User: Fold this.
Amino acid sequence: MKQSQLFTRTSKEAPADAESANAKYLVQAGFVDQLTAGVYTYLPLGLRVLRKIQNIVREEIDAIGGQEILMPGLTPKKVWEDTGRWDSIDVLFRLEGAGNKEYALAATAEDIVTPLIKQFAQSYKDFPVLVYQISDKFRNELRAKSGILRGREFNMKDLYSFHLTQEGFDEFYEVAKGAYLKVYERCGLQAIVTKASGGDFTKKFSHEFQVETEAGEDTIYIDKETGEASNKEVVEEADWDNTDKYEIKKTIEVGNIFPLESRFSNAIDFKVPDENDHQTEIIMGSYGIGPSRVMGSIVEVMHDDRGIIWPKSVAPFAVHLISLSSKTDQKKIDGEAERIYKELTKSRVEVLWDDRADVSAGAKFADSDLIGIPLRLVVSDKTLDQDSVEWKERASTEMEMVGLGDIKAKVEDWAQA
Ligand code: ATP
Ligand code: MG
Assistant:
């Protein structure tokens, strides 16, 4: 894509109320726009990143057998009453429609997916069932702060599992844990599996995936001897004050997996006959990842004082090609840049070409650092004197000259590495 065509622009000023790196850089670089507290528009650059994260999640959840569906955001009061949650979810947005009919905006979807699966899975032969969606969720969060880390409308992948046996469920729970760890690794994040309370649903623990960052709201305690991490807010432990025993980290929760036992299936009397025609309870689990929060977390972990440093896997573009203005032969610079742009694009490398005329080299470099595309290639009088382009990776301080004839192969190798 040509940067001259991009309708968004970077801004010199960070938003006045930006408390965290993601709130600052994502707005300043033109990835997102805040409509109101906790509610964001994803602009072209930001949507490309969000889609990449969603696709990583999709690939890993498909790989463990999840079937993708899309449930509505607007949901009738009845489904929440049936599970007893209309009044108990404090962050539920409740609203009234025509004819005094009451609705909630989906904050999560156990209440919708359980009756859905009940319609289709009517015999033991139909199990297990694994369904997921990637959709916006709405929560009336008391404090929406820290940019896209905590939104009132935010993107979530939610997977639901339905098993007839505890062993089947336990086995899948571990498989899901493995898939989650792959998602974070592919996104360039080191996630710590953390024991957390099972809440109202189970006496067992749930597990959170926590990423270390100052911008996080959680505190986890890592047992120095066993390496086991626990969320202090939820796991009761007499020993928390023993600072010799634990390493303490500030973190953000980027995912959560939850044994639900038969809490939701029993609520709507969803049971099926087993091989011996005995009515059997259905054991559920729910598994959430917030792609929008993952995106914000990546910025928190990967930035410097000039801007974002995207990992290749989720970057809006792989290459930021920059053509500078010439003192002698603008046509030559533009021509070479266009040739490289077409050559790379043709071999499916995603390139943002800063082709803007009348923008200084300094301003182009500052924008490039702010936006954070992993590889910067510069075409200028100086580089063309050496029949080369300048190669610089965002995460490194080193630069090198690469011959015009070598650039395609080198970029392809780099993109695949
Ligand atoms: P938190 O403890 O941070 O409020 P939660 O435990 O309520 O989150 P879940 O209901 O388990 O979150 O949601 C699954 C995932 O959705 C979370 O792990 C997180 O990645 C994401 N998520 C939850 N709430 C928000 C939010 N307000 N804004 C952005 N992402 C969110
Ligand atoms: Mg949580």
The chain has two domains: 3-304, 319-416. The domain at 319-416 is CATH 3.40.50.800 (Rossmann fold).
